[in-house]
Amino acid sequence: MGFVLQGGKIVTTLGIITADVLVEGEKVIAIGSNLTSDEAFDVSGCYLLPGGIDCHTHFDLEVAGTITADDFQSGTKAALVGGTTTIIDYATQKKRESLKLALDNQFQKTNNKCFCDFGFHMGITDWNNNTVSEMKALMACGVTSFKLYMAYKGTLQVDDGVIYKALKTGKDLGALITFHCENGDVIDVLVNEAKLKGELEPLYHALTRPSLVEKEAVTRCLDLAELADHYAYIVHLSTEAGLDRIIAAKERGVRVLVETCPQYLLLDDSRYKTEGEKYVMSPPLRKQSDNKALLAGLKNGIIDTVATDHCSFNFAGQKNSASDFSKIPNGAPGVEHRLSLLYTYGVLKHHISIQQLVALTSTNVAKIFGLYPKKGTIEVGSDADIVVLDPNFKTTISYQKQIQNVDYTPYEGFSKKGKIRYTFLRGTKVVDNEQICIKHPTGKYQYRKPFKGGM
Ligand code: URP
Ligand code: ZN
Ligand code: ZN
Questions:
Q1: 281 lines ligand 1 (CB under 6 A)
Q2: Among candidates 6, 1, 131, 10, which has minimal Cα distance to 382?
Q3: Of the N and C termini of the chain, which has fewer Cβ atoms inside 10 Å?
């Protein structure tokens, strides 16, 4: 059994062609004209985009004694409705825990729940004599990227020695080391000072994590990557100052890959004035000048990926019940709206082309994280992960309409142009007219290949 998508505009990083796409089983088997099959979908006038890959989600995560509103079921359903067919979530090592146990624990949470395909990065928090061999064992399990936190002192944060050792090990093993760049020691001091002064409102979350703490950590991370002679991948970059350090480092030959998120492109710190708890995330929202610089970074190719850092907590009862800003669980929802936001506010506002949208949300991600060309493109032989985007629609984003299981969206009232008419996951229609149209989860774990060196 197969089907053909007839007359759509196929978008890849190389260009846009109008052609038919023939799918059999899980794969694209031909691209051409006048193709026929058992079933045909007329998709003329629509864009066919490779299924999105969101390489930064946190589903079913416990933070500050509470668990994210989205688990792997609601999160992966929301992903598909938003045109994302693969997510890469985080397993994170607890102190004194082996990396394998941390992976197994996170894996268990996915049990029969994932509606889209999925993989994991591993967060290393407790470097010890076994870590190198454990990293090697994880590579064999298809976990080929690791995250180090330069923030969250006392829990997740690692020191510079660990950063250097991880980068050297990453180079030896073909693993990519990714970094949360904020100076956790300084944040700790600033948070304590603010609390002593009685500065407890959500705004102080942002004021105790100023741009300079990101810039400092980005600078240190890049210097250590240079010293270790390996790539660094910087997650959720939020500042112009950090971007400037990245541009300077690239100019001297440092190899760095960069991710940002829609919240750092489209929202700013004025959000902390009203219901500021909703926007307590790390790094925090910045200035409009930062939004502008990051949007330019997408256009000029300095930024490689746009992920969401989806980490959802309900406003009522989770975010709004903390006694001070430092107790608010960090994170915000986004997995459902990444593609529509980037299409509406990126492509249609001429910040990026639609080919760049595909690169930033799918192709580059697949290349960097060892999924290409199985995923990240529409080509003969690739997985038939295809998003059919009908550009002739206009609506607005509202939490009431969303699939993600959380009581707000940071993008309430944002306009949404274009509608995802269908999403196909490995040759199965999983979304029809913005609704999930399969009963049972069919997402498959993705064994990712070792890191080969950027794109
Ligand atoms: O506030 C955020 N971003 N929470 C998720 C954890 C992280 O640092 O990525
Ligand atoms: Zn982070
Ligand atoms: Zn995160």
A1: yes
A2: 10
A3: N
CATH code, domain with 178: 3.20.20.140
3-state SS, one letter per residue, for 298-333: HHCCCCCEECCCECCCCHHHHHCCCCCHHHCCCCEC
**Contact of 335 with 308, CB cutoff 8 Å:** yes
**Is 309 inside a domain boundary?**
yes
What does the DSSP assignment read for 59-74?
-S-EETTEE-S--HHH
The DSSP code for 34 is S
**Average pLDDT over every residue of 281-299:** 98
Which tens digit of pLDDT belongs to each residue from 142-195?
A: 999 999 999 999 999 999 999 999 999 999 999 999 999 999 999 999 999 999
Q: How far is CA 260 from CA 323, 331, 409, in A?
A: 30, 14, 18
Q: How many domains does the chain have?
A: 1
Do the domain assignments include residue 94? yes
Spacing, Cα 64 to ligand 3 middle (Å) = 14
> Residue 45 and residue 389: Cα distance in Å, rounded?
9
Within-domain flag for 443: no
Spatial CA neighbour of 92 closest among 147, 160, 168: 147
Q: What are phi and psi of 121, to 5 degrees?
A: -95, 165
Say which residues have a Cβ less than 8 Å from residue 265's Cβ, sequence separation at least 6: 291, 294, 295, 298, 306, 345, 346
Alpha-carbon distance of 287 to 324, in angstroms, equals 23
Look up the domain containing 179 and give its range.
52-368
- Tell me the percentage of the chain whose pLDDT exceeds 70: 100
pLDDT for 3-51, tens place per residue? Answer: 999 999 999 999 999 999 999 999 999 999 999 999 999 999 999 999 9
The reply to whether ligand 1 has any atom less than 6 angstroms from the CB of 282 is: yes
User: d(Cα 219, Cα 163) in Å, to the nearest integer?
Assistant: 13
63 domain-assigned:
yes
Residue with CA nearest ligand 1 atom 4 = 331
